[in-house]
Amino acid sequence: MTEQTPRDETREEEKQRREPRDAAYWARYAETLKVTGVAEGATNINVEGRRAVGPLQGFGKLWQKTYRVSLKDAEVTPVEVIKTWKENYKDFWPEGNLFYAPLAGITPGEVALISGSLPGGVKLSTGVMVLYADDESFSLMTPEGHPFSGWITFSSFEEEGTTVAQAQVLMRANDPLYEMGLRMGGHKMENEMWRKTLENLAAHFGVNEPVEMNLVCVDPKLQWSHYRNIWHNAGIRSAIYTIAAPLRWRRNRARQD
Amino acid sequence: MEDEPLSGSLHSLRGEYEGIKEIYRTRRNEMPEAQVKMNVRGAGEKASIIDVEGELTAFAEGVLMDAYNQASDGQVRAIILNFEDMEYMNSSGIGLLVTLLIRINREKQQLLTYGLSDHYRSIFQITRLDDAIAIHDSEEEAVRAANSA
Questions:
Q1: pLDDT at A17
Q2: A156, A139 contact by CB (below 8 A)
Q3: Alpha-carbon distance A171 to nearest alpha carbon in chain B (angstroms)
């Protein structure tokens, strides 16, 4: 085994001491997610205590989906676009989906709750963690049980003198049931959702440009070793939670009596 | 002696040429450049090392994939990423590592790393890349692991 020279040690120490430029932009590591403050109307049944999951932990095919809109003729910089997007994130979502922003806003490590709908009208309670946020981009990462396993990065940049806004999803369906759902109309619903979101963002800046989509299947293989993810399926758990509402009501009433 | 004036058509041709040159100059200046350098070197019969120096962001995609193509020539079964001189990484950079990993798995190769600071080790944990990418403390250790696999 080679011994470390004093010079190597100094270099190593210096490297560890030096705070990287991106340090403040990343969430800190935590084994499980913690929701600080539940907004009125939000349900925290599938987020607290769950682990965040990336594209490697999912079950389905790996997709990279890019949605972008050119903010042509809008006098706006990428920093202004991202500032506006962070502050008004929930307002740009299409109707039918609710985003309960964290109290501290879109800042690294914060957790937001989501109330959405799945094909067939099933209500879904889930959430996302802010994985990364700087002045020109931010990324949200999903918890176990979410329809997809991965992250979505929102960014803005200059391209040939025009500011562009972009959302890029890197994801796998979290379990076999979600994979089936995505194939049976889920992908279409998701594409429509992000198209509408970018249209709303562009409209905020007075722009009416078409949203470009680029959908790439990065890995067509299913990860069968992750089929057990279905245990955390937020759709199933949300449905059970809804069905059991009368029982919870009776139990609470009995306690009060 | 004065230069003979160019004919109208030649004038306009030269004007167009200068115009095109200007467009390319402007585009080159406006295009975000990758602030990253990657150096590829061999490490035994089965492994190659890619030294990553600078910023790992979306703009590094071309450079990283070129480096991978160069590194995976021949009988190489393992790719080792050296992050000792990485100065910055954002979430798009992490996304690049995921797509690289998929490519490497498809080629039945292995991906290993070394030189990650505590900060970047923590990012590998948060994003759960450490589930699939082996992290080593030193080049020696990574090369030994790559060549013994």
A1: 58
A2: no
A3: 10
